[in-house]
């Protein structure tokens, strides 16, 4: 029997991919990575076919279960028959989902440390398709990995230190993160994702190109939020830079009178290096200045041991100050802020 179907949840208008696009690309279907000769279900997406077991999908997705139940009730049981389903997802996305559903085709790569690692393309596909087909455990796992680098946490403003569960391909991937946050109602991903968009400025309007060649853009509302927030963020960053610059020059008071001239020279060099390093752009992270000052102090040390910790502490406080203001800077509505705060540990 044959069944053409789509999931219950349609794609948002901010994505350029559509059933029409994939239909235009459609050629003679070829076998995909997931193919079991004894399977009883063939899924066709674009120009790719997958053969697997209907019961496997039905057991994990109520959307697939309902789809197959309707088909079976209309056709009646056919012993040995292979069902055929045409879906309007990309072959790349479907491959990631099916890998995750099959025990021996783990979605992640195992590093030598034994920890799982993911590609951003995997996470994007898993969140979108798991949401569409209501496979909650896969959606939740993928979102939890995204949160290791994007989640906003007032109690721990530093994002995941050390090894990462995935690597961000470039800051523009934050456009997709905002899309995923809106799709799954996960506001904790929004503040830092908007911040990352601000670091690339006008390139945000170009959108994020997915693995399958389609492009996702910010919605009109979020694009406005990004533009207005970027202006507020630049002002806030400028205020912090001025404060930090004054603090650097004033740190010489901690030095002994005998070394004050030498320390003044060092602090002046740190001051100039700091202003040159920060430039006119928004730093890559709210804690960029801490690393900058630490490196500069190693090159231009002062006689007072406490000066280094004083400067580091100042950078941390400035970074935390900026971090705490991100939701307000990007104008997140009160209801989103309340839900965000409720999700924090």
UniProtKB/TrEMBL annotation:
Residue spans of biased composition, Basic and acidic residues class: 1-14
InterPro entries from the UniProt entry: BTB/POZ_dom (IPR000210), SKP1/BTB/POZ_sf (IPR011333)
All copies of domain BTB, residue ranges: 39-150
Region (Disordered): 1-24
Signal peptide: none
Full protein name: BTB domain-containing protein
Organism: Polyporus arcularius HHB13444
Organism phylogeny: Eukaryota, Fungi, Dikarya, Basidiomycota, Agaricomycotina
